[in-house]
Amino acid sequence: QVQLVQSGGGVVQPGGSLRLSCEASGFTFSNFAIHWVRQAHGRGLEWVALISYDGGHKNIADSVRGRVKISRDNGRNTVYLELNDVRPDDTAIYFCASVDTPKVAWGWFGPWGQGTPVTVSS
Amino acid sequence: DIQMTQSPSSVSASVGDRVTIACRASQDIGTWLGWYQQKSGKAPDLLIYRVSTLQSGVTSRFSGSGGGSDFTLTISNLQPEDSATYFCQQANSFPVTFGQGTTVEVK
């Protein structure tokens, strides 16, 4: 079964840090770029970050640049998103998603992780 | 970044109706337009890519059309399970961007 399973997240104080994980199964993970997309409550989808299939290319949205790191471990079929110096407007559900075409940096997304909530609050 | 604008923001229709959702890009994106369905509390699912190609397993009641900067998602013979929020997404240029979503309520 092709799937992405997310973990991490939760409640963090402003200025704090946390790490989100996204573990793949059921497909050749090392052939696919992974993106992170977030969704604030009742809002639309905002692209956050991408990492290429081999980890050689990364890109981060302007809204979080300097505070977010993305990495992957193809041996563990897992991508990580590290959020640092978090702010209240980082509060959202964070989704990881695979690009549906091998070795392409971006395109259409599928499968998606189940989403993990991040709440920034003191 | 390319801005994607959807209309309407919400629509309420009855079972069996046809619903049309519009998506406009701030510049020409050719045929690099996809649609996603997101049900409450779930991740989005890809419905249509390259304007009109149905993702495997998606019912033919969904169809897409358009090109350039104006696109349409049509749901024919609306069913209760179509209650969801629908997003368009452009994949013409980086970063990918999404419309703000259209919520479909089935009466």
How are the SSEs ordered, and which strands pair?
The complex is a heterodimer of chains A (122) and B (107).
Chain A: E1 3-8, E2 10-12, E3 18-25, E4 34-39, E5 46-51, E6 58-60, E7 68-73, E8 78-83, E9 92-99, E10 109-112, E11 116-120
Parallel strand pairs in A: 2-11
Antiparallel strand pairs in A: 1-3, 3-8, 4-5, 4-9, 5-6, 7-8, 9-10, 9-11
Chain B: E1 4-7, E2 10-13, E3 19-25, E4 33-38, E5 45-49, E6 53-54, E7 62-67, E8 70-75, E9 84-90, E10 97-98, E11 102-106
Parallel strand pairs in B: 2-11
Antiparallel strand pairs in B: 1-3, 3-8, 4-5, 4-9, 5-6, 7-8, 9-10, 9-11
Question: What can you tell me about this protein's structure?
Answer:
The complex is a heterodimer of chains A (122) and B (107). Chain A is built from no helices and eleven strands. Chain A is mainly beta and 122 residues long. In chain A, 39% of the residues are buried. Chain A starts with a strand and ends with a strand. In chain A, strand 4 and strand 5 form a beta hairpin. Helices cover 0% and strands 50% of the residues of chain B. Chain B has no helices and eleven strands. Chain B has strands at 4-7, 10-13, 19-25, 33-38, 45-49, 53-54, 62-67, 70-75, 84-90, 97-98, 102-106. In chain B, the strands form two sheets. In chain B, strands 2, 4, 5, 6, 9, 10 and 11 form a seven-stranded mixed β-sheet that branches. In chain B, strands 1-3-8-7 form a four-stranded antiparallel β-sheet, with no helix packed on it.
